[in-house]
Amino acid sequence: MRGSLHICQLGNVNSSRALEIIAFSKGSIAAKQKIDWFPIRGLLGAQLTTKRSVIRTHQIEMKRSASSISKASPRAKKPRPSVPEYHLTPSIRDESGEIVWPAPKAQIERARNLILECASAGKKTLIIPDKDADGLTSGAILQKTLVALGLKPQLISAHILQKGCNIHEESERAAMAAHKPEYIFVLDQGSRKGPPVIDDPHKALIIDHHWALEDDFPDGSDHVTACNSPPVATSSLLTYHICNSLHEKVHESCDWLCVMGTHGDLGNNLKWEPPFPDMKATFKKYTKKSLNDAVSLINAPRRTATYDVPAAWAALTAASSPSDLLKNRSLLEARAEVNAEVERCTHTAPKFSGDAKIAVFRINSAAQVHPVIATRWAGHLQSPKLEVILVANEGYLPGMVNFSCRIPRSARARDPPVNIIEVLKGIAAKAPNPTLRERLGESFARGHKEASGGIVPKAEFEEFMDILEIGKKPKDSSSPRKAKKEAASKQSNTLMNYFGKQTAA
What we know:
Layout: E1 4-9, E2 19-24, E3 33-38, H1 42-51, H2 66-70, H3 105-121, E4 125-129, H4 133-148, E5 156-158, H5 170-177, E6 183-187, E7 203-208, E8 222-225, H6 235-244, H7 249-266, H8 280-286, H9 288-303, H10 309-318, H11 322-326, H12 329-345, E9 351-352, E10 358-363, H13 370-378, E11 388-393, E12 400-406, H14 420-429, H15 436-440, E13 444-447, E14 451-457, H16 458-468, H17 480-489, H18 495-504
Parallel strand pairs: 4-5, 4-6, 6-7, 7-8, 10-11
Antiparallel strand pairs: 1-2, 2-3, 9-10, 11-12, 12-14, 13-14
């Protein structure tokens, strides 16, 4: 059945976009099918001129205008992938069926006994907290507990590690030994196998939550770790749990420190529901805003180029509430400095690995802003294949690359879950030179399964990058949109074909 062709010419549209043709035939399958914006050029123009007198227009349906075409409806946003609540992470149970949280009972009891022994011994005690909010609040909780138990404040010292150092380096071991401590508490520093914390006789306790094997601790030390008791508690929460039952003053003087440290590591959207303790009274007393503002302030000094962590420790141990920190000038100045540096570096464009699983951002800053930028991009960058956000900072330590890795939001609900430590080790294992893994050093792929990184020599980092094939497109890199366009270009029932058939007839 032959259909009618109906043409409407738009008066104010240039010749290259002059016609919108609506072809339909009463009762035909092609009724009211729209064919948009074909150019009037060459043969088409000539044929329209000769056929204009023959083609009769019986009906014109033209509801769209040039102005309405430009007002395309906005594309609907993709829904953000849902991420399971952290507190709902399945826990493990012991032989009696009881949940093992926040750490094995035997470890917790040994830790409590050593703290009580230290307080009653009245000997020199050294606290070695990590530099971030979780580590510093852990140390502050322990210090307040020891004082409440009767240990004189003048017997307690703190040692803050130098920028880019760890407790196993000889310079740090010598600095710790200079305090001549008999009791040493290492909090939130990560765990690895090594020599005793110091060479002189002492008793050491490691309180931590970073991933570690059973023997990944200094020789001669005892330890309590949350790494095998999901949902993994922070070091501050673990320390609070250990100390809370030792003295009645711990709860009222340290609950806000526990919240600060936990929010510092797990974020301020954490739900304090079982197995986490009930902190409703704490939030009511101090407000969530003041607690979270205090976290950002206490985290700021360690991120600055000057690395003024001692100032953060002094401010925290002198404070009796979060409001004391909110007025601290040195903390406020440090935060302003860090915010400016984050803004300068955060707009770096990513490059992707050959398999599109890793997004790499490279920055150069004397400030420790790479973890912040990794966390930011992890909340925004989305891709079906993406597994890891890696931000590498070439300006933090001379001759070294400090890098932080985070799991993007779009990959947090994967099954099996993404394990950054295993991903990094797996990449290093693919190196053409089998010595790369050893040359990357002991500070490679440390931390948590969900938040890892490393400090590695620049040459070895470039070797590591070569394995990722940054910028190389995967073999199946053609996008669905491009494929759709190619399919559309092969359409056979075109307007040119129609007029060609009419000429032949």
